[in-house]
Automatic annotation (TrEMBL):
Catalysed conversion reaction: Hydrolysis of terminal non-reducing N-acetyl-D-hexosamine residues in N-acetyl-beta-D-hexosaminides
GH29D-like beta-sandwich domain residues: 546-590
PANTHER family: BETA-HEXOSAMINIDASE (PTHR22600), BETA-N-ACETYLHEXOSAMINIDASE (PTHR22600:SF57)
Lineage: Bacteria, Pseudomonadati, Pseudomonadota, Alphaproteobacteria, Caulobacterales
Name this protein carries in UniProt: beta-N-acetylhexosaminidase
Organism name: Caulobacter hibisci
Signal sequence annotation: 1-20
Amino acid sequence: MIKVLLLATAAMAFAVPVLAAEPLSLTPAPAKAERADGVFRLTAATRIHVAKGDVEARGVALQLADLLHRARGLRPMVVEGEPAAGEAAISLVRGGPDGEGYALDVAPGGVKITALKRAGLFYGAVSLWQLAVQDDSKGPVDVPAAKVEDAPRFAWRGFMLDSARHYQSVETIRTIIDGMAAHKLNTLHWHLVDDQAWRIEIKKYPKLTQVSGWRQPAGAAGRDPKTGKPVRYGGIYTQDQVRDLVAYAAARNITIVPEIEMPGHALAPLVAYPKLGLTPNPPALARHDWGIFPYLYNVEDGTFDFLNDVLDEVMDLFPSEYIHVGGDEAVKDQWKASPVIQAKIKELGVKDEHGLQSWFIQRVEKHINGRGRRLIGWDEILEGGLAPNATVMSWRGIDGAIAAASQGHDTVLSPEPTLYFDRRQSASLDEPPGRIIISSLKDVYQFDAAPDALTADQRKHILGVQANLWTEHVRTDERAQLMAFPRLVALAETAWTKEERRDWDGFTTRLPAEMARLKALGVAADTAPFEPQATLRPGQGGAIAASLSSGLAIGQLRYTTDGAEPTAASPAYGEALSLKAGTVLKARSFLGEQPLGRTRVWTATELAANTRESRQLELCGAAIPLMFEDDAPKNGRDGDRAVFAIDVMNPCWIWKGADLSKPLTLTARVGQAPWNFQIGAAKDQIVVRKPATPDGELEVRLGCKGERIAVIPLGKAGRGPGLGTVSGVLPVREGVHDLCLTFTAKSLDPMPALDRVSLTAGQ
Ligand code: ACM
């Protein structure tokens, strides 16, 4: 409150519009916005006017009517011509701001959206829709009067969806497009091809999808439990579906940029057409692995004919200015080992395999440029020399962007770690599987899109920013949406709103409205980072100590211990609670009066206080730390799968601070997951401890290098599929110790994995 008053005073003193207090809930925050007096009453009888014959404006008006219908259940009628005298209507008018810019004037007597281009009209309509949708209420609404003048900071406001590792339905991609468009994101980079699959129908090469649109999942998920027959997982996008999606996106000012990977990440096309590669029988089954595969295209003329044919069909389908050709992570072992490739390197006079990759990409660029399009690739296309007209997508930090810009090339910032949306969003147990290292909503919001490492001139080459969702660990369509949203809303503000207008605190106040908007659009958005998480620990005199926290620490955590639903009037959480065993604790986050996320519920039992999920344990290493999904359902039948926190280079967990001065029983729930990673020779560094019994053992050590105090045979629990439980007694030792938990096993694959451990008193 104090902050708002001070800012308002400052605004008056310098006679600038009242921007600072920002009463309007618009995301991304507009370039200029001023609240005016009164409201515009939007009802089912409100009409949207467009000029006679303005087909584009009419299209936008119909979209606005449709969006209002989805969120509020009312559908204004679209009519041609001026509003009648005294009619309080919405008008879409040509003029004013160019490009994606627009002006929006909301007054009690009518609403006017003004823009020169269709894109601007669309974004004006989106802003009006946002002002009309602040919560999940239905029916007529008072839209706050306001004057908005708006235009984007960056031209490329992107999201990359990996549809190769896991397939998403066309319906889900439409939903993602809806969520993007509602936040003025304008580029969907569609990763259609990788080692695991080729998803886009190519008429001239039908085996690409017939063979490589499908794979057998790793481990237990790869066999039907009833028949034992291989399971086929996958899906393809037909050219008709692609055309429909491209049009659906374009209507929402979103360009779909297709990516066809080369020369690496090419196992899928090589399985379909081995003559394009360097080995006669590329391993079809390995398509269920993750990581970096060695399989590259060869550099025969016939391979370029193939790539040109594919790109021709792709360019016929996608009118995008840019065509993405991948170029990342093409390990050169096969090229190094091939006499034919080595001869080609000599013949061309290029320096080495990187020089050959540069020649490869330049040859493809000529074809793409020949069709009037531009090539974009991951930052590895810089290695060995950048193709003359190429644009660089910087993913290994921003070094690629710096290098590209200093050579006068355009660049898009989509760096690890912050803009990699396969990372989890908080430490909550409710997060979907993915990479363990967190990239939170706040991290994304605070991403610096104008880094000091670039000079002012170099910054002019930054086309924009993009978040990437790799889907190795994103098996379902719902999870793809949860990983994308609401982080894409934060990215949208980074991409659209000028630096000086961005403000995390202001953004957070708009989050309840944002979550309501996403819900209205049917977008599944991750609420876990807003929600309380409880840590239960043994307390004094048989009580349970419960501490609450939330990933983003936005607003106030409120709780009840009498079974009632927490409300904005419930006690605010301050310090750890001391609860009688058996108490039901319910908690929810509130921002003022508004709840943010769901209510979470725990029963404070002694067992719960002495139990930790693998995701609540410390990992011994951080080489490839994942929240890795089990290959089989928890109960061996249909249903949920366990999610293990595991460093797949060093499966080892630490229980901090176990008091071993009295006998304890350790009970562990364990699973077995396929070890399906292509990491070359690094695999040989993984320690596999030899078992003493046929199914292996769980080992307990004092610290990771200390005495092995228990060896608990896994027996049946080690056989899977699904989870099994084992227990054993820990010997008494003086004092409090960190316990290091590891497994022995016959081989690396499958790898035993810890799901949950408890330490209870007695034997
Ligand atoms: C990438 O993450 N390999 C672009």
